Amino acid sequence: MDFKPYLKKLTPYPPGKTVDEIKRELGIEGPVYKFNSNENPLGPSRKVVKVIKELAKTVNLYPEASYIELKRALAKKWGLSPENFILGNGSNEVIELVFKALINPGDEVLVSQPSFLMYEKFAQIYGAKVKVVPLDNKLKHDIPGLLRNLSNKTKVVFLDHPNNPTGSVLDRKDWGIFFKNLPENILVVIDEAYGEFIEDPEIPLGIEFLKNGFNVLVLRTFSKAYGLAGLRLGYGMAEKSLAQLLDSLRQPFNLNLFAYKAGLIALEDQAYLKKSLKIVKEGRRYLTQELSSLGFKVYPSQANFIMVDFGSVCEHLYQGLLRRGLLLRPLKPYGFPNSLRITIGLPEQNQLLVKNIKELLG
């Protein structure tokens, strides 16, 4: 059997491991604290749990195929029309739909390095050429570098904003330079998986560019701020013709019943969202202050995680914390061998992490 030649070097995406996997592999009997996967430490909204329990008795039936209620709720939230939305089994699915709709083998896509790995994975799967542009010296998307790497084969530019794993963002001046010099036929995918956690009022959101007529697809997810990572629910916002094309390419019933209805309840539960954002913003400030006071470089972040350069003690701390059941994400695969990414936890979890780091430092 002949496989597509550009798939031969494809490697699977390395997902974070579950608590059960970690306990099994490391022989940990006590509690495990996940600071490695950017999940919501609050758990899901109680209102979401209630509706899931109520829906369990109807799982023999297919959900409504159009998902129109959720599209209407999102349209109300963002001041758009339901026809501007494409719903996905996680925002990953919406990213793949972009490749199905716009990318032919040999076309080029631009990504920053590091950034969300799935942009490159889908490019490999669909035979596209990936042009990689390193982040600038402030670990932000290098706007001049991205513009220099455009060609007549460039179809899409993927920008995660905030960036993963740095948490960096672009200001209005950066975006202005970018769009002023970008050909109108090139789609910009602004991936705002962590957009809810942006605290700086001077940082523009993708919805602004969409409403001003720029050629953008803005991605959002329910996995982070809304605490629904296990249900896989994301969406994109775009001008109507693009959104409707992407919608025509998705699998029927691509959202399961639980995800669909949980999304509706999550949007209504503003108290949960407010609490979730408060925990992250306060925890981000706490960990930044504490780790900076220990002499480590903490990079500015507008996400639900921080990136920390631990220097020569990075591996010692990572392994020591791992043995104690505290999991952080090593960033050596991203090109930062002395750095770890830390998901913001509950206040008591953040305090426990700092306590253990101090103990390991002696």
TrEMBL record:
Cofactor: pyridoxal 5'-phosphate
Domain of life, source organism: Bacteria
GO biological process, alphabetically ordered: L-histidine biosynthetic process
UniProt keyword Transferase, yes or no: yes
SUPFAM superfamilies: PLP-dependent transferases
Gene Ontology molecular-function annotations: histidinol-phosphate transaminase activity; pyridoxal phosphate binding
Pathway(s) annotated for this protein in UniProt: Amino-acid biosynthesis; L-histidine biosynthesis; L-histidine from 5-phospho-alpha-D-ribose 1-diphosphate: step 7/9
Residue positions where N6-(pyridoxal phosphate)lysine is found in the record: 224
Keywords: Amino-acid biosynthesis, Aminotransferase, Histidine biosynthesis, Pyridoxal phosphate, Transferase
EC number: 2.6.1.9
Residue span(s) of domain Aminotransferase class I/classII large: 33-354
Catalysed transformations (reactions): L-histidinol phosphate + 2-oxoglutarate = 3-(imidazol-4-yl)-2-oxopropyl phosphate + L-glutamate
Family affiliation: Belongs to the class-II pyridoxal-phosphate-dependent aminotransferase family. Histidinol-phosphate aminotransferase subfamily.
Stored PANTHER family: HISTIDINOL-PHOSPHATE AMINOTRANSFERASE, HISTIDINOL-PHOSPHATE AMINOTRANSFERASE 2
Subunit (UniProt): Homodimer.
The name this protein goes by in its record: Histidinol-phosphate aminotransferase
Taxonomic source organism: Thermodesulfobacterium commune
